[in-house]
Amino acid sequence: MKESVMNHGDVNAIIPTKKRSPMNGQEDEPTVMKNKKQMKWNDPMASLADARHEFSEHGGVNMSIEASATFTVMEPETMRRMFTGELGPERDFFIYSRHFNPTVLGLSRQIAALEATEAAYCTSSGMAAISSVILQLCNSGGHLVASRTLYGGTYALFAHFLPRISGITTSFVDVKDLRAVEEAIVEGKTSVLYFESVSNPTLTVADVPELCRIGHAKGVTVVVDNTFAPMVLSPAKLGADVVVHSVSKYISGGADIIAGAVCGPARLLNSMMDLHQGSFMLLGPTMNPKVAFELSQRLPHLGIRMKEHCNRAFAYAMRLKKLGLQVIYPGLEDHPDHALMKSLGNKEYGFGGMFCVDMETEEKANHFMNLLQNYTQFGLMAVSLGFHETLMSCSGSSTSSELNDKEKALAGISPGLIRMSIGFSGTTEQRLNQLEMTLSRMQEGGLLNKY
Ligand SMILES: Cc1ncc(COP(=O)(O)O)c(C=O)c1O
């Protein structure tokens, strides 16, 4: 029996099995929570390929699913040492799967490599990731400064839920106004500056380096939601302390899983798992290891998928703009953040797979989406993003409906704004024809001027 199996073993394993050494000569590295490879980081796909590869217990090319909820020890003393924190996952000692689970940890290591952070840990949803990290970083009565253009659920969490249950308040600002951000941060009181790298739904690109400079000068932790731009932007490389994801979107890619991730310093992730004070450990936003395994199968082709989402979004956005629609896409030269995105983005990943079309009224927006789904089959009317099919929703009445009319106006969300997550199914030509047919039909119905 190998020593590691002597030290611990899952209670479902009757026959001890040989544990493979990880590839890349990292077998002695106590790096379960530390992505030391980040020093070599230059491209997210390269970084992912460089991350420690997990074999299964029997030498299979995929990592094992560690399905056990609890783990046994061979000597009673080991249990005490695990609970004092002396023995932990970095030396392959596991206690219970609400605490660290080896399969979730395997996926988390890959996500840390993707985001170039020292560590990461995955959660049951994007909201679980966001709420857990905020509750870890803020105390009761604390203060955040956040972008006023955020996913509606995050906005509601900050604007309504946190003040009610914990007295944590948020000042919402336009993060394009750097002076306003600086003025809103109260030194000694504000603990977090929070924004989305590319905002949902308006696709404003945050000046991550400048915002981090301002935040760090005032001693706050900068947390960036990179859900809209994995691979495209790497906020941690641009200065962010913490990166959060709704893994339910691009990283999953299948529109069949709800999941999240917190990426950041090992010290933070370990504190979130603390038995006495950790939000992961005590609130229990745990990812199922079977889900972690599924996701680990999808991460290796995230880069290829993102490139195709971006290529398609660029082609369709250009065509719609040429046909006279009001298109909001950072890849278009007339987008106010085009140059910024070009300077911050990772090379060869494009400008993201999302664009918006502003139809001015909700009625026109609904008519357009209805035809795109039911007449030409260009896409599906559904919330969410990152799927291989195009998904379309009118943001003001769906994923941003948590904001009232005044808040929507301040956030730049017009009533006719359609958010489109561009898929890569079908051929580009086929999809462009579908867009043109839809627009002709709108004109025939008198709902659109002739282009
Ligand atoms: C930018 C952004 N962050 C976070 C979330 C929440 O993620 P989840 O649905 O996985 O909880 C969403 C969901 O739409 C989102 O768009």
From TrEMBL:
One of its GO terms (cellular component) is cytoplasm. SUPFAM superfamilies: PLP-dependent transferases. Residues 15-37 are annotated as: Disordered. GO terms for biological process: transsulfuration. Its cofactor is pyridoxal 5'-phosphate. The modification N6-(pyridoxal phosphate)lysine is found at K249. One of its GO terms (molecular function) is carbon-sulfur lyase activity. Keywords: Pyridoxal phosphate. Pfam families: Cys_Met_Meta_PP. It comes from the Eukaryota. PANTHER family: CYSTATHIONINE GAMMA-LYASE, TRANS-SULFURATION ENZYME FAMILY MEMBER. This is OLC1v1012792C1.
